[in-house]
Design a protein that fits this description.
This protein has 242 residues and is of the alpha/beta class. It folds into two domains: 6-35 and 153-241, Rossmann fold (3-Layer(aba) Sandwich); 38-150, Rossmann fold (3-Layer(aba) Sandwich), CATH 3.40.50. It is built from ten helices and eleven strands. It has helices at residues 15-24, 58-63, 68-72, 80-89, 101-111, 131-137, 156-166, 176-186, 203-206, 225-241, and strands at residues 6-9, 29-32, 36-40, 50-55, 75-77, 94-96, 118-124, 142-152, 169-173, 196-200, 216-219. It has a six-stranded mixed beta sheet with strand order 3-8-7-4-5-6. Strands 2-1-9-10-11 form a five-stranded parallel beta sheet. Helix 5 (101-111) runs parallel beside helix 6 (131-137) and helix 7 packs across helix 8.
């Protein structure tokens, strides 16, 4: 393996495989190592008086059973990947905020009126930002339902530590929760991090990792997959010139 050829992908499936294909297209060796595993949680969706749905992860779209009543409601998604997952699941009207939780809340508040009904956030147990809280501050009745939960992947720590010892390259972080799991796994391996460049989907994704001694720490220009891959492409090109 070339010195800087490895690219560790810490996101959960099935999104990890899509990222791996993009990474492979850059001439890197993608290494899928999910930091977490997803567990669908039993949830009852009360749609009485709901005017629209909110969704902040693609996992939520895959975690719920889509009924005719549910898919007929407009759905506001945090970004394009979540919007694509919602459309694939069967939702009919999907609007992408193209940003983070705050962007989603602003878009929903701008497009809708509190007088038209409640907003229901379909989410996981771990979330970045308080979307419902922001919307309540704007006068909306906003509530959430946890439709899935993420747990530490039992193999992640051993896998990532082995890779840190033997390779060098890049590590991609797609969520703050993934960053926290990576920090917990590598906090005692700081001497091995200097050969690795860390790339995060957003500033929140790398906040808990900035102090650990990575070779470089970069953030995508916007919080979406295309921007993350663009940042990786630019960094690979830069490293090839050094």
């Amino acid at each position: 393996m070339d010195e800087m050829n490895a690219c560790v992908i810490t996101r959960t499936e099935p999104g990890a495989h899509a990222t791996a294909e993009a990474v492979r297209g850059l001439g890197l060796n993608p290494l899928i190592m999910p930091a977490a595993r997803v567990e669908i949680t039993p949830a009852t969706l009360d749609l009485e008086g709901v005017q629209a749905l909110l969704m902040t992860s693609a996992a939520a779209a895959r975690a719920i059973q889509i009924t005719e009543t549910l898919k007929a409601l407009p759905l506001y998604a945090v970004g394009d990947a979540t919007a694509e997952a919602a459309l694939a699941a069967g939702f009919e009207t999907v609007i992408s905020a193209g940003g983070d939780g705050a962007t989603l809340a602003v878009l929903a508040a701008d497009r809708m009126s509190p007088r038209q009904g409640a907003l229901l956030h379909l989410r996981g147990r771990e979330v970045a930002g308080d979307v419902t809280g922001m919307l309540r501050a704007c006068g909306f009745e906003a509530r959430h339902v946890e439709v899935y939960a993420t747990h530490d992947h039992p193999d992640f720590k051993a896998q990532i530590q082995d890779r840190l010892r033997h390779d060098a390259g890049y590590i991609l972080i797609h969520s703050p929760a993934g960053a926290r799991r990576l920090a917990a796994a590598v906090s005692d391996r700081e001497g091995e991090l200097g050969r690795w460049t860390l790339l995060g989907l957003s500033a929140a994704c790398i906040k808990s990792l900035e102090h650990l001694g990575f070779r470089n720490v970069l953030v995508a220009e916007s919080p979406d997959e295309d921007a993350l891959i663009d940042a990786l492409r630019d960094e690979v090109a830069k490293q090839s010139l050094e």
